Amino acid sequence: MNVTKIHEKLKPLSWIIGEWRSVTAIVNYPTMKHPVSYTEKLSFVSHQGRPFLNYQSLTWNDLDNSPMHSESGFLHIDDDATSVALILAQAFGVVTIEEGEVKDNTINTTSSHVGHMRLVKHKVVSITRSYRLNEKGQLEYWSMLGTPRTPLTEHIFALYEK
């Protein structure tokens, strides 16, 4: 894969392109017994100069190094250079289309569509995400999650370095 050739359309997203690894990552939710610390490898990479980024997230538990969550997909940007769409498939059977905007080294998205395979045990009804490049060159991430029983609630915070 050629990661150096970047499509012109992706320039507003150039700050997020690359391989990131968590420095701190915590997942919590009202249905969990306690917060869980985890490690994450996150990537946003160009695919041979095409006008979108490939996205992948792999996580594992800090206590026993067991695999946790994984998801992959694509980050698109519209011709207006601010509207974005994140299209994701999560390993446990949820797919999302999340739409939002990029501005000043920040991406904010909200789910516009959520789909589930028939076998999903824990349904998701909404998700929001925020990515921000801070003044130290670290990537900050926040996520909120809504389910049929729990309204949109803080779910994840992570801090990454390249």
UniProtKB/TrEMBL annotation:
Which InterPro entries would you find in this protein's record? Calycin, Nitrobindin, THAP4-like_heme-bd
Residue ranges annotated for the THAP4-like heme-binding domain, each copy included = 9-162
- Domain of life (superkingdom): Eukaryota
Q: Which reaction does it catalyse?
A: peroxynitrite = nitrate
What is the name attached to this protein's record?
Answer: THAP4-like heme-binding domain-containing protein
Tell me which species this is from: Exocentrus adspersus
What are the leading ranks of the lineage? Eukaryota, Metazoa, Ecdysozoa, Arthropoda, Hexapoda
